[in-house]
Amino acid sequence: MPAQPGQITIPERLAGTVRAEQGEAAPALLAELPGRFAEHLGRWGLVLERIAEPGGRSSLIGYVHREDDLAPAVLKATPAGSDQEHAALRQWAGRGAVLLLDADPAAGILLLERLHGDIPLRSLAEAKAMLEAAGLLQRLWVEPGASHPFTPLADRVAERAELLRARRDLAPEAAPLIDEALETAGALLAGATEQHLLHGDFHHGKVLAADRSPWLAVSPRPLVGERAYDLARLVRDRLDTLAGSPGPRGATRRRITQLADAVDLDPDRVRGWALFRGADAGLAALAAGDRATAELCLEFTGWL
């Protein structure tokens, strides 16, 4: 018998994210999500095994199998819609990323190949994980096509820059750093010439072990733009480890150089995007009330 909406619970991690991001709309979005999830179990002939706990921060994840052949899969439901994720996964067609099996984009529902959700790339030692990550990114950076549906990098940066300005007063002591980040992003966009499909949120937690390939990327927030932007989020990975290293400023610069060299990119452009994205992450954490993360991100930004 298919699972009923009342049997599907929303993990608290997801509920917290929806409340923080959607404000007054959150209760309605959370209330209708189990019904939408259950509807697609029946529509696609799926049996729910369990809901992933603590699960993702932005999606309801269910481990499922098909009724007819017992093939394992994952059903993913996004409260505010899946945006362009399905289009990116379809374009990659399993090359470097999780395979899309079916999709209802209007409902924010994706049916995905099942990976090993409990084995992320960060389970490897840092040096090995960074090497694997760099190689995987190069498989994802493809031409987007003439009529692609993906958000231009300039639009995403404009959106984040507006938020940075609006949140600037949350950290008055970091105002010079915020100003530098905004100025740097503007200069980078002015000099950008590349048009690649980007993952948009690539880090060790968004890469999982798989059966048909050692590692595959999941949960993209796709963009079209220059590759250095994608690499910049990876620079900030394992930030607590970086902060605890002897001479974190030098360690950060070495990480940038090593990653940029691995994919043949200009380390100055990687550093610039890491500066902008670090400042953005710091003020976003402050706005969400997470002061510890905010202070670490802003400290990292200062190293750059």
Tell me briefly what this model is.
By secondary structure, this protein is of the alpha+beta class. The chain has 11 helices and 11 strands.
Question: Care to describe what's here?
Answer:
With 304 residues, this protein is α+β, with helices and mostly antiparallel strands. It has 2 domains: 5-114, Phosphorylase Kinase, domain 1, CATH 3.30.200; 120-303, Aminoglycoside phosphotransferase (APH), C-terminal lobe (Aminoglycoside 3'-phosphotransferase, Chain: A, domain 2). Helix content is 48%, strand content 16%. The chain has 11 helices and 11 strands. The protein has helices at residues 12-22, 26-43, 85-92, 126-140, 153-167, 175-190, 227-235, 239-243, 248-262, 267-287, 291-303; strands spanning 46-51, 60-66, 72-77, 100-104, 109-113, 116-120, 151-152, 196-198, 207-209, 215-217, 223-225. It has a 5-stranded antiparallel β-sheet, with helices on both faces. The chain has a 3-stranded antiparallel β-sheet with strand order 6-9-10, covered by helices on one side. A hairpin with a 5-residue loop joins strand 9 (207-209) and strand 10 (215-217). Helix 5 (153-167) runs antiparallel to helix 6 (175-190), helix 7 crosses helix 10 and helix 10 (267-287) runs antiparallel to helix 11 (291-303). The longest helix is centred in the last third of the chain and has 21 residues, at 267-287. The relative contact order is 0.11. The mean pLDDT is 92. This is Aminoglycoside phosphotransferase family protein. InterPro entries: Kinase-like_dom_sf, NH2Glyco/OHUrea_AB-resist_kin. Pfam families: APH_6_hur (PF04655).
